[in-house]
Amino acid sequence: FLYFPETHGITFRIKISVKELLDTDVHLKLLFHLPVNYPSTVPDISVSSDQLTRAQCMDVKDKLLEEAKKHLSEPMVHDLILWIQQHLKYVIKQSATVCNEKTTLSKGISTEDGIWMLLLHLDHMRAKAKYVKTVEKWASDLRLTGRLMFVGKIILILLQGDRSNIKEYLILQKTCKVDVDSSGKKCKEKMISVLCETKVQSQHKRFQTFEVQEYSTLDELQKEFETAGLTALFSEFVPPLLK
Length: 243
Hints:
7 helices; disordered N terminus; Ubiquitin Conjugating Enzyme; alpha+beta
């Protein structure tokens, strides 16, 4: 990083690599200029990348500035770097393709057209309220619909959406600290099973929203699956969880 006279503040130049869709590395060059009254004022931010268009770089900059406003009065550069590493996919998803010599983002998406469905089984939730809120946020951010379902000790997550978003959800579910361990410390989800990942068929109902549902009996849960045209899915994967 570079130091400037006291009246100008400090400027950081940082290069980061972000694992993008289809395992493509996107290299970002970030410049943060911290004014003398930082962190009471957000830093000036500049974003450049050989793999993103100018418009995409502007989108990244705008999102970083939005995020910076949430951290006023506290050091934020490190948090902003972590944030863009986790959210770059969503920021540029609506923009033009990310190019390199191997592949393009648009080509990758076009080969996976259609809506996909994912059924997950969680062993437990110790910090249930926080866990549920996190799952709801991820589903919203990734434009996924479906259900988070509780019946007895069984916890299921049924998701529908673009396959790339389904894959991204799985990454978040497995790599982020979503629960607490027996001592109360934040921990990653280690007791998760992918029961089914498949393309949504014509007989399957499309969920319009993502909802959290608690069922009193297994019959109520079964009716939810039947209403969605997922009777076979229920019969194959849910009864074995009772054993």
